[in-house]
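Before our next group meeting I need something from you. Please put the record directly below this note.
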Amino acid sequence: MNIAVIFDMDGVLVDNGAYHYQAWKMFCDKFDILFSEDKFRTFFFGRTNEQVLGDLFKNDLTAHEIKQLALEKEQIYRDIYAPYLKPVKGLLSFLDNLKENKIPVGVATSAPKENVDFVLSGLNIQKYVDVIVDDSMVSNGKPHPEIYLKAAQLLNTEPGNCVVFEDSLSGTKSAFDAGTKVIALTTTLPSDKHKYAHQIIDDFNEISVERIFAGKVL
């Protein structure tokens, strides 16, 4: 069995939900748009900027306007988060564990490439990642399963052989519907809110290659 592990990025590699919320709040304040943390965590986190901006502006935007507004919001986010960038607890040792066992690793995220580069280089973890799928590489954002189907394909394996780490409802549903095994983190939502997970953890100190593949998940 050609096993692989796929990570979402925001809320999984880094616990950055509060900084994305802060950036969206500043952005929405500029345009006099009401924006609640509950709606952000439940409906927006894990989705593409195109999806979020379409909802915020009631789909009254051109493709060029969406691109420009998304660039503006993401620059706000990176400026806010840069001084606080750090991995979720246990991530680095878990990545070492995967590499020692020669298990290929993918990152599948709704974030733009600039944010992916910002996080992976900031954490210095590029050497662990074999495949990256970002928002520019899919037609359908999460919760559609396309991103995880594509990640599995690029990793040369079947979705059923993949373990996905996710944190949002749109993300876990995407991975679940793709046919992967889903491990949800509680960085964004509490455990009782996760409906599409085979296992739930608080951070990577609770997981290891041995635990994953000892019949617990795969």
Notes: The radius of gyration is 17 Å. The chain has two domains: 4-15+86-216, 17-83. The chain has nine helices and six strands.
